[in-house]
Specification:
Strand content of chain A: 5-15%
Oligomer: heterodimer
Largest sheet of chain A: 6 strands, parallel
Structural class of chain B: mainly alpha
Strand content of chain B: under 5%
Distance between the termini of chain A: 79 Å
Radius of gyration of chain B: 21 Å
Structural class of chain A: alpha/beta
Number of strands of chain B: 0
Helix content of chain B: 55-70%
Shape of chain B: flat
Number of helices of chain A: 30
Largest interface: A-B, 52 and 38 residues
Strand order of the largest sheet of chain A: 1-8-7-2-5-6
CATH architecture of one domain in chain A: 3-Layer(aba) Sandwich
Distance between the termini of chain B: 68 Å
Shape of chain A: elongated
Number of strands of chain A: 15
Order of helices and strands of chain B: HHH
Number of domains of chain B: 1
Number of helices of chain B: 3
CATH superfamily of one domain in chain A: HAD superfamily/HAD-like
Chain lengths: 686, 88
């Protein structure tokens, strides 16, 4: 009987439909037929399982490497196959048998209870993350089952049917499948043809009314045909191309770290039913921002493991997106060890600024922070930022000879040196400082009550995560609680640290940037400075900003910005606009977690690709990308309402603020901006 | 728009984009060589994405013929080496 071979799945299923009237049962090969793998080589799964076993062994003080675990696994499996081949038609092995032997060899009498189940669960989770059910198969199987046909899934694999059933159930096929059959249970495989008579006997199948479909020309084609079953073979060309690309990238990745990142993104690709038509913003979120955020979380996880910290706080509002990504990535990457608890902390620069005043008073550094936005220039702005009542400070202002709207901002063109001297005198006025401290005390107490409720003081160390850029939140938080003996060491981790403010870094409290840090300047990651405001808009949580901590009738209350005004309406519209972008980021984060677990890549290995991505997508973006992704309106509660001089606007303008026509028609604009950025960076640092 | 394109490429990271990025790394001073792709891999990847489908079809459809050719070539090379390195 000739075996028909098809090179496209839709063509095969079209032909199979014509045969259905003549068959009662359909058996289908599982892997590379119903399921496809994201990776080109199924053995890659074994690498991460070996790492899992190695980490578990390390927890018990057993010293081994994942390479030797893998080598042992392969050796023991080969022995089992050879032994089984003497008694059965095929050289098959059973997962539970050889893995038990492997684990006993590694752990000896320290083998934990049910550890084989844990390893099997882990391997199945990894396997589940790399396999995708083909959309056409899912629909066809459902349709054929509804016609009353019996459907069997059959595979030559070391996993027994009980494990394959879990994979099949996870993909939603179980209701339509009568049985899942594995060669690992009987050691009779399709390869020798012994599986078919066994299936026929066990399930009472008639070979004349039986259709078998698979991808192997021998096991699924010739052997089935020799037994008398109608057999169809699928040699999917598109799949061959996809796997060829993965194979090439895998090879390149072994030669050069750059390609590891590209390979990772290839494996992260949505396939089959996952690959739906989406809005372009979703694709931006998936292929760029998702990778950026996931890389940051990956670097955060590595840092948290180094520090041995058990509690991570994500600061509102930008920390929201990081916490969402953390929830998707951390359980995968922590593997054997417990995932540190992640909490969302309601903080803001304005709320903390007032609380910090209770300990610090009004320092020159604090004033500098308040005057940093170009829209801020005078003492009124300082009071607004720090939540101070200017009327209660009036006597001190009069003593110093400062008027409310005197320009203290050093950038002001009309600024006189006298104003700064007067402000320095004011800062030295002890009565002024006492009044400032007293105005901060109420919110400091409320902040402490809030942090106690969050368990902030229960740990010796706390990681505080934010998007960046100055580390103001970490600095103010540290200052607000520095009087407490149970204050934890604060490890401030930000996406990018610009270091424009000379906040002291010490053992007690420091800030470091994981993607960009001015102290470890790299040109590629510095391109993040092009899109600071955009990143804040993208990362912002869908709730209003926190204005103040306050006590009300002995209870701590968080005082948020109103949701009724124009600013809130603009923010809501912005959040709705970014919804597909967020979806793309979160989906990418989930796949990133699995992909990194599979390959065991570190951020050092993925950094070259991230650098390239930043250059391509941030420094040399397409005009359409800028127009699509750019924020509609950036809201900064720190910034005042003064007019910003054009000179300062020009200085602060980046490529992403340039007019679309200039972006589209000026071929040198991107090169000009990257050169300008390079010169500015060199000037700042040397 | 789909994230995974028909030729298994990533939307937003297509080969043309990679090539533009590669050129950009050559125009930006002090760019580290490690942070840019190598030309040969880039070209192979491009061919895989652009022409991978017809090439895969040809090798799959005429698998026996290609295998026979490859086997014949290997035998020829082995014989040539034997003649060159064999005893007088």
């Amino acid at each position: 009987m000739t075996v028909r071979t098809f090179y496209r799945l839709d063509a095969l299923l079209e032909h199979a439909d014509t045969l259905l009237s003549r068959v009662d049962a359909v058996s289908i090969d599982i892997f590379d037929t119903v399921f496809i793998r994201r990776i080109h080589d199924p053995d890659i799964v074994k690498f991460s399982v070996s790492r899992f076993i190695t980490e578990s062994a390390a927890e018990l003080g057993i010293n081994t490497t994942w390479q030797s675990v893998l080598a042992s696994r392969n050796r023991i499996e080969a022995v089992h196959r050879k032994r089984n081949g003497k008694s059965f038609p095929d050289h098959e092995a059973r997962y539970d048998d050889y893995m038990s032997e492997l684990l006993t060899e590694i752990f000896a009498d320290q083998l934990p209870n049910d550890f084989l189940d844990k390893v099997a669960d882990y391997e199945l989770n990894i396997e589940d993350s790399v396999i995708v059910v083909r959309d056409l198969w899912q629909r066809w199987i459902k349709q054929v089952a509804e016609q009353g046909k019996r459907i069997f899934l059959i595979s030559d694999i070391y996993l027994p049917a009980k494990y394959l059933q879990r994979l099949v159930a996870a993909k939603g096929l179980s209701p339509h499948i009568e049985a899942v059959v594995s060669s690992a249970d009987s050691f009779n495989a399709k390869a020798s043809g012994a599986a078919y008579p066994l299936l026929a006997d066990n399930y009472g199948l008639s070979k004349q009314r039986w259709l078998h479909i698979g991808d192997n020309p021998v096991s699924d084609g010739s052997r089935a045909s020799e037994f008398g079953i109608t057999a169809l073979v699928l040699r999917d060309i598109a799949e061959k191309q996809r796997k060829g690309i993965a194979r090439s990238l895998n090879y390149f990745a072994t030669q050069r770290n750059f390609w590891r990142g590209r390979y990772l993104q290839q494996i992260m690709l949505p396939l089959e039913g996952e690959n739906q038509d989406r809005e372009p913003l979703y694709a931006d979120g998936y292929s760029f921002f998702g990778f950026l955020m996931s890389f940051f979380i990956h670097a955060l996880i590595e840092r948290v493991r180094e520090l041995g910290v058990s509690r991570v706080y994500f600061c509102s509002r930008e920390g929201w997106i990081f916490k969402e990504c953390w929830n998707r990535i951390a359980p995968r990457l922590f593997g054997v060890t417990n995932v540190p608890e992640a909490r969302y902390l309601y903080v803001s620069r304005m709320a903390l600024a007032n609380a910090a005043c209770a300990n610090t008073g009004m320092t020159a550094l604090n004033a500098r922070v308040a005057l940093l936005p170009a829209e801020n220039r005078d003492f009124r702005d300082i009071c607004r930022v720090f939540g101070l009542d200017i009327e209660r400070l009036r006597p001190a202002l009069e003593r110093a000879g400062i008027v409310d709207d005197d320009w203290i901002d050093p950038r002001a063109p009309h600024e006189t040196i006298d104003n700064r001297h007067k402000f320095a005198e004011l800062a030295g006025d002890s009565e002024f400082q006492t009044e400032v401290r007293s105005q901060g005390r109420a919110s400091q107490q409320a902040l402490e009550a809030y942090l106690e409720k969050e368990g902030f003081f229960e740990h010796d160390d706390a990681v505080v995560v934010d998007v960046g850029w100055l580390g103001t939140i970490q600095h103010f938080l540290n200052k607000a609680i520095e009087h407490r003996s149970d204050k934890p060491h604060l490890h401030g981790i930000v996406l990018a640290a610009t270091r424009q403010m000379p906040y002291p870094n010490s053992f007690e409290s420091y800030t470091e940037g994981l993607i960009f840090d001015q102290t470890r300047l790299t040109l590629p990651s510095s391109t993040l400075l092009y899109i600071k405001e955009l990143l804040e808009e993208i990362c912002r949580a869908p709730h209003p900003t926190l204005l103040k901590y306050q006590m009300c009738d002995g209870d701590m209350q968080l005082n948020f910005r109103t949701e009724d005004d124009h600013t809130a309406a603009v923010e809501r519209e912005q959040n709705e606009y970014y919804r597909p972008l967020h979806e793309g980021i979160f989906d990418a984060a989930t796949r990133y977690g699995w992909a990194v677990t599979l390959f065991g890549y570190s951020t050092v290995q993925l950094r070259p690709w991230l650098n390239f991505l930043l250059l391509s997508r941030v420094a040399f973006p397409r005009t359409s990308e800028v127009q699509r992704v750019k924020h509609l309106a950036h809201q900064d509660e720190f910034a005042g309402r003064h007019h910003v001089p054009r000179r300062i606007q020009r200085q602060n303008r980046s490529l992403w603020n340039v007019a679309p026509a200039m972006l589209r028609f000026n071929p040198f604009i991107r090169l000009y901006h990257i050169w300008r950025h390079l010169v500015k960076t060199i000037q700042l640092n040397f | 728009m789909k994230v995974s394109r028909k030729n298994s490429d990533v939307s937003g990271l297509e080969q043309r984009r990679l090539l533009k990025g590669f050129l950009a790394t050559k125009l930006v001073p002090f760019w580290r060589n490690d942070d840019s792709p190598d030309c040969s891999s880039l070209m192979i990847l491009w061919i895989r994405h652009a022409a991978g489908y017809p090439l895969a079809y040809l090798t799959e459809r005429y698998h026996k013929q290609w295998s026979g050719l490859l086997l014949g070539w290997r035998r020829t090379v082995a014989q040539f080496r034997d003649r060159r390195g064999g005893p007088e």
